[in-house]
Design brief:
The chain is α/β, with parallel strands linked by helices and 160 residues long. It contains 4 helices and 8 strands, in the order E-E-E-E-E-H-E-H-E-H-H-E. It folds into 2 domains: 52 residues, Urease, subunit C, domain 1; 100 residues, no CATH class. Strand 2 and strand 3 form a beta hairpin. The protein starts with a strand and ends with a strand.
């Protein structure tokens, strides 16, 4: 299904806004156009946003969802629902607030499965490299493994 959102404003240069239209096909933004208010193309639904300001989704690169392990502190479901309510469309969860922490490949895979089943927004995971990993000397292998797995970032903690 194709939807055209009309009568809206988007951020412009400086403090200005620009009038625009947004075309969405099957839930994905296809194109942002200058406001020209043409007639609908066959099968296209129009939604008038009444001069609303439309902002891009935000990314929160530092969240500490205590999931798995400590659900009373919050989990991926409650945390990402709150994020979505605030306009955040992607979160990056830190590695050391869950049990098990994301300091091994298995920990990363486990947390990714948990998050995928509960998340209401897109998510990324940080990988964690602890002081114990440095002491063992296998930190480089773990780092390369995390990079290959697509982690958003690496958190280094020399204390643990």
């Amino acid at each position: 299904m194709r939807t055209r959102f009309v009568n809206l404003r988007i951020p412009g240069i400086g403090n200005d806004t620009a009038r625009a239209e947004i075309l969405v096909t099957d839930g994905l933004i296809e194109e942002v156009l200058e406001d020209n208010s043409q007639t609908a193309v066959g099968g296209e639904q129009w939604v008038d946003l009444n001069d609303a300001l439309v902002l891009p989704g935000l990314i929160d690169g530092h969240v500490d969802f205590a999931d798995p392990g400590f659900p009373l502190r919050g989990d991926f479901s409650s945390g990402t629902a709150a994020a979505a309510a605030g306009g955040v469309t992607c979160v990056a969860d830190l590695p050391c607030s869950s049990d098990p922490p994301v300091t091994t490949e298995d920990g990363l895979e486990y947390k990714a499965r948990i998050a995928a089943a509960k998340a209401h927004v897109d998510f990324m995971l940080w990988g964690g490299i602890s002081g114990a990993t440095f002491k063992r000397g296998d930190w480089k292998d773990l780092l390369l493994s995390f990079v290959d797995s697509g982690v958003a970032a690496i958190h280094l903690s020399m204390r643990s």
